[in-house]
Design a protein that fits this description.
Elements: E1 4-9, H1 16-27, E2 37-42, H2 48-55, E3 61-64, H3 82-87, E4 92-95, H4 98-103, H5 108-120, E5 124-129, H6 133-137, H7 141-152, H8 158-161, E6 165-168, H9 182-200, H10 202-207, E7 209-213, H11 218-225, E8 232-235, H12 242-250
Bound molecules: 1,3-dihydroxyacetonephosphate.
């Protein structure tokens, strides 16, 4: 089975003490993680090393950065490079979250550069895509997301695309309590997979993990993750509550 992933995105929340407490509370649970199931915790940069220490010895639970720079190194005050992440043993990074696209004007070309730098530095990108409300209302979400993929990741080789991780997060469902229905998620995920298949072939498409994000919580995770093309979730608000996120992890296929 392709990898099923429950990914927490803490965004800009929690103090270090609160974050450690949250991670400890989550780890009090027993999870049946194996080769095909994993957990990611995308925490703020200053907490990466502390949370990584705390996760030491936990098989298949990894820290993840929420962003990386689009340039290799140099005079870019405040930026954190993929090489720096690798140098502290962080091997996952969110790229292209809609909040970065919207508030920091990250466009598809810039995100392609970030994807390249992550891969070149042995950091696995979790590439985020998804349409705003106006696009959904115009029913052009398939083409919109397809274009995001084309412009940011379809320059990759088939080898690089094998096992790639994508997170589909419809912007209108993020933090709004308005979840896409599991059928809406499945429909878009199936579209993403078909577009990858057209570009790279069915075998590569079948290997790609596609996470759903947008108001995932304990109460709806099993329904959403149960859909054939949904391979887990990228979770914001509910990942800040230990019991919620623990149930979400247990809802993985
Ligand atoms: P919510 O789960 O709070 O809707 O956030 C989703 C998200 O943006 C995860 O990256």
């Amino acid at each position: 089975m392709r990898k099923q992933i429950a990914a927490a995105n803490w965004k800009m929340n929690l103090t270090l003490t609160e974050g450690i407490q949250l991670a400890e509370d989550i780890l009090k649970n027993e999870f049946d993680l194996n080769k095909s199931r994993a957990v990611l915790m995308a925490v703020p940069f200053p907490y990466l090393i502390s949370i990584q220490q705390l996760l030491k010895g936990q098989a298949n639970i990894h820290v993840c950065a929420q962003n990386c720079a689009s340039t290799k190194n140099g005079a870019y005050t405040g930026e954190v490079s993929a090489e720096m992440l690798n140098s502290i043993g962080v091997h996952y990074v969110l790229i292209g979250h809609s909040e970065r696209r919207e508030y920091y004007h990250e466009d598809n070309a810039l995100l392609a550069a970030k994807v390249n730098l992550a891969l070149a530095n042995e950091v696995v990108p979790v590439f985020c895509c998804g349409e705003p409300l106006a696009v959904r209302e115009a029913e052009t979400q398939n083409a919109f997301v397809e274009n995001q993929l084309k412009e940011s990741i379809f320059h990759l080789s088939a080898d690089q695309m094998k096992g790639f991780i994508i997170a589909y997060e419809p912007i209108w469902a993020i933090g709004t309590g308005k979840t896409a229905s599991s059928d809406q998620a499945q429909e878009l995920h199936a579209h993403i997979r078909s577009v990858i298949a057209a570009q790279y072939g069915a075998e590569v498409a079948e290997s790609v993990t596609i996470l759903y994000g947008g108001s995932v919580k304990a109460a709806n995770a099993a329904d959403i993750f149960g859909k054939p093309d949904v391979d887990g979730g990228l979770v914001g608000g509910a990942s800040l509550i230990a019991s919620e996120f623990s149930t979400i992890i247990k809802s993985l296929k």
